[in-house]
Design goal:
Elements (H helix, E strand, L loop, with lengths): L3 E6 L8 E6 L2 E5 L8 H4 L15 E3 L5 H4 L2 H6 L5 E4 L1 H28 L13 H7 L3 E3 L13 E6 L7 E7 L2 E5 L22 E5 L12 H14 L3 E5 L5 H14 L9 E4 L1 H9 L11 H9 L2 E3 L2 H6 L7 E5 L9 H8 L6 E4 L8 H6 L4 E4 L2 E4 L3 E4 L9 H9 L7 E5 L3 H15 L3 E2 L6 E3 L1
Parallel strand pairs: 3-4, 4-5, 5-6, 9-10, 10-19, 11-14, 11-15, 12-13, 12-14, 15-18, 19-20
Antiparallel strand pairs: 1-2, 1-21, 2-3, 7-8, 8-9, 16-17
């Protein structure tokens, strides 16, 4: 019997990445992500997997973003007891992200119950903070470039993918087949992270396609961010910036620091980082100096050039301050977290600004704001959007279509098969078409739940 892959997530959508590799009696899950965005996608998190968690031998994580790691506490709660292999950076970030994810789900359920806007009585969290803490000891770290055996007779190794701290591509070798999982690939010209390593030889490749149908603008983040913040500062407004606590928050902090150094923003413009998770992540950059471009001085500046907000009382107190000021707060697509309170408070005022800093999945509040909607639903009520909405095109931490193809071209020779994953239907099919046309390789977009040979 050959080696097969079942696409349990990250197929036809950018969320919920889960790829089940099976050979004979063994099963390995590459990534263990939560579905986010549209309600029908989020509801998949509540549907049992097609395999009992206790029958999965091991999990390998490409990186710590919740759409790749956020299902892990539920997997463990439902009976998975194997090891979870990850890079040290991914382990460190999971220690921050997963308990926070459980905490936010508990808070959201409690808020829904208190205000009676859930259709379920009572509303329940998918998993709790404690469930996440219970899952963390399963994670075993492996350094980049070191071969390990997640299952006897199987081999795997991590290579740097850029994107965020700890992010990796995974090469899996089983029964004579070499399967390469790109993970989320960073940009070669990223402001913060080092570029992805060249792709190793493989028989089968799973390539992400978040930006499979477009290229990033030539304009860099500083050139795009400066005029927006200059406008809002001039009119005394508040810029609310939904950010991913991991990666995007630090890139924005670094960009604002550089703009102040260049004299393009007033040194006195107050900047607040209102996300305990982002605050903790920012300190991690000092522990992983080899993975990013920042000097020691730049790394220190990340934590010194903004006011770090930890407590909910400090967060609430921001509402009584007057602009101009910049509030960076999670989550990046405004799906939850403290940024929702800031959006509810500031979105109605035309002097204020909402800056969207990267890909906004359809069905998220960020996606609603990016589409130009004049209202956004927050905590069960419609909030008017009179603030200026700016969508930055240059802040993405994902490789664009040309960069994805360039990475594929670094493979020593053509693979037998490419599966285009982790993208909406349009971008995934556009990238598939380019792979076939420009590289002459076999490529297809697998459907959710489908099983294919390697």
């Amino acid at each position: 019997m050959g080696v097969s892959i079942t696409f349990l997530g990250g197929a036809g959508t950018v969320t919920g990445s889960k790829y089940l590799v099976k050979h004979q009696d063994h099963s390995l899950l590459v990534d263990c992500g939560l579905f986010q965005g549209y309600k029908q996608l989020r509801q998949r998190n509540w549907t049992p997997l097609s395999i009992a968690p206790g029958q999965i031998d091991a999990v390998v994580l490409t990186h710590a973003h919740l759409d790749h790691s956020g299902y892990l506490p539920l997997l463990a709660k439902e009976g998975f007891t194997g090891k979870v292999y990850a890079t040290p950076g991914t382990r460190d970030l999971c220690r921050i992200l997963l308990p926070d994810s459980g905490h936010i789900q508990e808070e959201d359920a409690e808020f829904a119950n208190r205000h009676n806007f859930s259709k379920h009585a009572p509303a329940l969290p998918l998993y709790t903070r404690q469930d996440a803490l219970d899952a963390l000891p399963l994670i075993k770290t492996v350094a980049f470039g070191k071969t390990f055996s997640p299952i006897p007779g199987w081999k795997a190794s991590f290579s740097p993918a850029g994107h965020i701290l700890g992010a990796a591509s995974v090469l899996l070798e089983v029964a004579g087949r070499r399967i390469l999982f790109s993970g989320d690939l960073g940009r070669p010209d990223d402001l913060l992270m080092s570029p992805p390593q060249n792709a190793p030889q493989a028989d089968t490749v799973l390539i992400e396609s978040t930006y499979g149908d477009r290229t990033h603008p030539h304009e860099d983040m500083l050139a795009e961010l400066a005029p927006a913040l200059q406008r809002v500062a001039k009119r005394g407004g508040v810029a609310v910036v939904p950010v991913f606590a991991v990666g995007r928050a630090q890139a924005l902090l670094h960009a604002i620091h550089l703009l102040k150094l260049k004299g393009e923003l007033p040194e006195s413009l107050p900047v607040f980082l209102d996300s305990p998770m982002a605050v903790h992540t920012t300190h991690l950059f000092e522990s992983h100096p080899g993975e990013h471009r920042l000097s020691q001085h730049d790394t220190r500046a990340l934590t010194h050039n903004a006011t770090m907000i930890n407590s909910t009382d400090e967060s609430r107190a921001l509402a009584s301050r007057h602009g101009p000021m910049v509030i960076l707060s999670a989550s990046g697509m405004a799906t939850g977290g403290r940024v929702l309170h800031h959006l509810a408070h500031y979105a109605g005022n035309h002097r204020n600004m909402i800056i969207l800093t990267g890909y906004q999945a359809p069905g998220t509040r960020g996606g609603t704001l990016a589409s130009g909607a004049r209202t956004v639903r927050i905590h069960g009520r419609d909030v008017e959007v009179n603030a200026e909405v700016v969508q930055m095109q240059s802040a993405s931490a994902h490789a664009d279509a040309n960069q994805l193809l360039t990475w594929l071209r670094t493979m020593p020779k053509a693979p037998d098969q490419v599966y285009v994953v982790h993208g909406e239907a349009g971008p995934a099919d556009t990238l598939r078409s380019r792979i076939v046309r420009e590289l002459g390789w076999r490529a297809q977009v697998p459907e959710q739940g489908s099983t294919w040979p390697t």
